[in-house]
Amino acid sequence: MRLTILSRSAAIHSTRRLTEAARARGHVVRVVDPAQVEMGLGAGRPALYHRGKPFPLTDVAVPRIAASLHQHGLAVVNQLALLGVTLLNGPQGLAASRDKMRSLQLLAASGVAVPRTVMAADPSALKSMVKHVGGVPVLVKLLAPGDRGGVMICETLQSLEAALEAILGLGQDIVVQQYVKEARGSDLRALVVGGRVVAAVRRRVAAGRMARSLRRGARFEPAQLGADCARAAVEAARVVGLEVCGVDMLDVPGGPLVFEVNGSPGLRELEEATGVDVAGAIVSRAEELAGARRATRHAAT
Predict the structure, then answer these.
(1) What CATH number is associated with residue 124?
(2) What span, in angstroms and rounded, lies between the C-alpha atoms of 124 and 202?
(3) How many other C-beta atoms lie within 10 A of the C-beta of residue 143?
(4) Kindly report the CA angle at 51 between 49 and 53, in degrees rounded to 5?
(5) Dihedral angle sign, alpha carbons of residues 22, 26, 27, 29
(6) Number of neighbouring beta carbons within 10 Å of residue 215
(7) Which range of residues forms the domain containing residue 166?
(8) Residues 94-104: pLDDT tens digits?
(9) What's the pLDDT tens digit per position in 15-51?
(10) Is residue 222 within 8 Å of residue 271, measured between CB atoms?
(11) Does the global pTM surpass 0.85?
(12) How far apart are the C-alpha atoms of 115 and 249, rounded to whole Å?
């Protein structure tokens, strides 16, 4: 199998692990920086180039699109889809997962339980937003383009005031989510690959400071998901439209609440905490999709 990984660098840990796992299975692997990919339309078949040369032939492409390159990277994935390349995560699913409010809307509309959530464009409305989700503690997310977003757990009104001062005037949309008191220590991430959970961790999250993601300052422990959490993770992946994703949820009385779906989850914490060969599971799913594509083409001839 010829596997292309769309990633800014072959040295990134998750990219390196995917490369190692694929090569260990005898596959040909190429890492392509999407920033160095050019696209063409309007002259017959869509065109795709890498550093000015035709894009390398590939059986499956694995998008690992950085937030800083989201729009261009997503356009590259769209172009690959137009050319009929098998994708491990397509453009629609990736776009939905990056739009945090949109993904929650999709989940809620499909019956997947989510925390109480409000969104506003005015940071001065933060205090009233907190009331709408049931008071502190809350998860405050700054939705900014590229890598300039952030997330913060505010456990007290004082930390909420600090968050307000930090983000006031930035002119970005804000999402405030219920962070259930009973969920402290029950913040879970499940990695879903091909419609099944292959690894899960419990995340002990540091509170009180703005970070780009909940990974910053967190401790990870292996977790055994109950049947309801596993079902919620698999259904969230299906609704958003992702073959591979990290599903973040709160395991609380009454059932799990899904609060985020990540289309390019990091592999280091999951593999180190659980000992599961997550990269191997992802490559195995790529093999299945490539095999299904070959079978379809053979049946059509």
Answers:
(1) 3.30.1490.20
(2) 33
(3) 18
(4) 50
(5) positive
(6) 16
(7) 116-179
(8) 999 988 899 99
(9) 999 999 999 999 999 999 999 999 999 878 899 999 9
(10) no
(11) yes
(12) 9
